[in-house]
Amino acid sequence: MGQYQHIVVLTGAGISADSGLATFRAADGLWEDHRIEEVATPEAFMKNPALVHRFYKLRRQAAAQAQPNRAHICLADVATQSDDFTLISQNVDDLHQRAGSEDVLSIHGQLNQYQCVQCHVVDQIGHDELNEHSVCPHCQSHGSLRPDIVWFGEMPLYLDDIMTRLMRCDLFVAIGTSGTVYPAAGFVEIAKRNKAHTVMLNLDGTDNALFDEVRTGRASQVVPAYFYDKLGFKPPDL
Ligand code: OAD
Prior knowledge:
Elements: E1 7-11, H1 13-17, E2 30-31, E3 34-35, H2 36-39, H3 42-47, H4 49-65, H5 70-80, E4 85-89, H6 95-99, E5 105-106, E6 109-116, E7 122-124, E8 145-149, H7 159-168, E9 171-175, H8 187-193, E10 197-202, E11 213-216, H9 219-230
Parallel strand pairs: 1-4, 1-9, 4-5, 9-10, 10-11
Antiparallel strand pairs: 2-3, 6-7, 6-8
2'-O-acetyl adenosine-5-diphosphoribose binds near residues 14, 24, 108, 177 and 218.
């Protein structure tokens, strides 16, 4: 449908800001006086697992209380109207999934999952919160569970699949991301090199010349306005 056949959307923390979740680079990227980069690393986890578990526990609680907003819902809806629609998210909350998006490529992992560093199983975190004493239900190792999050210095997920999709897309839309963390920040360049039309929907403008179009505003407003009003996707019946 519409003028674009192969759409790739990349989302960042800004899309969940309208659901009440803090972005990373708001408040100087600090959490309880720690730089985010000092908490979200394998080294931080080895040094102080209790601190890292506490950080992610608070984020899991905030995400569980938040609801998907109109931007998450719009993307789930547009995907059902498009033959080739890829949603890549840097976010570790599950608001895209709860809005109805399927096959989200969560390149930085998922807050509600754990990973066992001994047996490498990945599973859902149940009612029991993770802590440094948690026992892996699969291999019974003690203290071996970590959040299933891609930390600084680790390799984001799904990169091969993403490269294939970026090389065939004719529309690339970045939503609510500061474009400071690679490799995601470089996706626009790959799409652009392959002649896709590139769009940024963000609260602040950007002087990044790789974007053909920049629309500023809150994601819950600019995302539906772009896909329904500009591109002509059909809004859901109210
Ligand atoms: P950032 O916090 O770096 O950027 C959020 C962007 O969203 C900024 O450009 C804001 O201006 C914009 N924004 C804020 N509120 C908005 C709203 N209501 N509507 C639209 N835009 C809004 O977050 P990310 O770019 O997602 O990585 O950060 C990238 C990665 O850095 C994260 O995935 C995380 C972090 O460190 C890991 O944890 C590995």
